[in-house]
Amino acid sequence: MSKVSVSIIMGSRSDWPTMQEATKPLEELGVEFEAKVVSAHRTPERLFKHASEAHTRGVEVIIAGAGGAAHLAGMAASMTHLPVIAVPVASKNIKGLDSLLSMVQMPRGVAVACQAIGGAGAYNAGLMAAQMLALKDEALSQRLQEWRKAQTDSVPVEVE
C-alpha cells in the first residue's frame, strides 16, 4: 500500500463534487491521497482524532473543504502541526461568501492557507499540496515542472 501524503476532508458528503476537483492535480502528479467526511460540528470527536493523528499515518498536508459556518479547516489546523489548505464550498444562501469569510478570518497563531470558493479553489488546493510536497521530493518537483511547462505550452499564441 502506498503512503497517503494528502488527506482531503470535507464537512459532508454533499461537498464531494467540489472537493473532488482537488484530486485532479494530485492524480496527474502521482500524489497519493485519501478523502473522508469529517464534520467540525456533527463529528467533532472524529475531527479531533483525524487531525491530531494524521501525521502518525504519514499525512503531510490536509485539505479541508466546508460550506456555511465553515469551521473545519480552522479546527483541523488548531489540532495539528501539518499545513492545512482551506476550500470554501459554495453554500445555498450566500454562494460561499460565508464559507470564505469563516476560513480566511483565522485568529493569529492558527494558520490556514485559504483558496477560492468552489471547484477552482479545490483544484488549486490539490495543486498547492503537491507544490508543498515537491519541496522535499525531487521526482515530484520534476513532474510538477513538466506539468507547468505542458500547461504553458497548451496556451495558443494566436487566435484562430
SSE layout and pairing:
Blueprint: E1 6-10, H1 16-19, H2 23-28, E2 33-37, H3 44-53, E3 61-67, H4 72-78, E4 84-89, H5 97-104, E5 113-114, H6 119-134, H7 138-153
Helix pairs in contact: 3-4, 6-7
In whole angstroms, the N-to-C terminal distance is: 47 Å
Any low-confidence stretches, pLDDT <50, length ≥5? Answer: none
Please estimate the helix content: 40-55%
Give the overall shape: globular
Tally of alpha and pi helices? 7
Overall number of domains = 1
Global mean pLDDT: 95
Question: What does this molecule look like?
Answer:
There is one protein chain. This protein has 160 residues and is α/β, with parallel strands linked by helices. The protein has one domain (6-153): 3-Layer(aba) Sandwich (Rossmann fold), CATH 3.40.50. It is 42% helix and 16% strand. It has seven helices and five strands. A five-stranded parallel beta sheet has the order 2-1-3-4-5, with helices on both faces. Helix 4 links the parallel strand 3 (61-67) and strand 4 (84-89). The protein starts with 5 loop residues before the first strand and ends in a 7-residue tail after the last helix. The model has no long low-confidence stretch (mean pLDDT 95).
Task: Characterize this entry briefly.
The chain is globular, with a radius of gyration of 16 Å.
Features:
PurE_prokaryotes, 7 helices, 5 strands, Rossmann fold, alpha/beta, EC 5.4.99.18, 160 residues
